[in-house]
Amino acid sequence: MKAGPFESARLLIRAPTPDDAPALYEAYRDPGVMRFWSSPPHGSVAETVDYVTPHAGDQWRQWVIVEKASNAAIGTLAAGERRRGVMEIGYLLSAAASGRGYAREAVSALIDLLFAEGARRIFADTDPDNVRSIALLTELGFQREGLLRAEWETHIGVRDSIIWGLLRDEWPACPQKAGETG
């Protein structure tokens, strides 16, 4: 599925290309960044190329997050439709880009896009120990909806998963909530 470009104040968010792989590899090989990811840190740039390259029949749209000021790839976003109107999101940001509000800016822009496209619900699935991701989702208005025990078998063992959800009318930037049409 094709991922069209969009942007925010400081970020360009576009489909990844193989040329992004060396910069993204820095994030995907980092054990700290990948600790709560569903796969282990990448062992090569080629693995990152394969991971971020869309594949035929893939139901996930993928984007690379590019810092406008430096033109550097600093992370990734993904969205997949689970049921009509229900989107799951995922995101990853390099350690070097953390702490500057880029994750909040990128995920907010993605939420805007998905609700504008007609999603009624967006959800994310996080490891209970992923404090930074939980803080981001909470700041964005997501509500904890459930705990799935022993949900994922990952490189750090079998892990629980917390499901976080956000409805269109709960999103402050949603045009329908502001009384606009469209």
UniProtKB/TrEMBL annotation:
<keyword id="KW-0808">Transferase</keyword>
<keyword id="KW-0012">Acyltransferase</keyword>
<dbReference type="GO" id="GO:0004145">
    <property type="term" value="F:diamine N-acetyltransferase activity"/>
</dbReference>
<protein>
    <submittedName>
        <fullName>Spermidine N(1)-acetyltransferase</fullName>
        <ecNumber>2.3.1.57</ecNumber>
    </submittedName>
</protein>
<dbReference type="InterPro" id="IPR000182">
    <property type="entry name" value="GNAT_dom"/>
</dbReference>
<dbReference type="InterPro" id="IPR051531">
    <property type="entry name" value="N-acetyltransferase"/>
</dbReference>
<dbReference type="InterPro" id="IPR016181">
    <property type="entry name" value="Acyl_CoA_acyltransferase"/>
</dbReference>
<dbReference type="Pfam" id="PF13302">
    <property type="entry name" value="Acetyltransf_3"/>
</dbReference>
<feature type="domain" description="N-acetyltransferase">
    <location>
        <begin position="11"/>
        <end position="169"/>
    </location>
</feature>
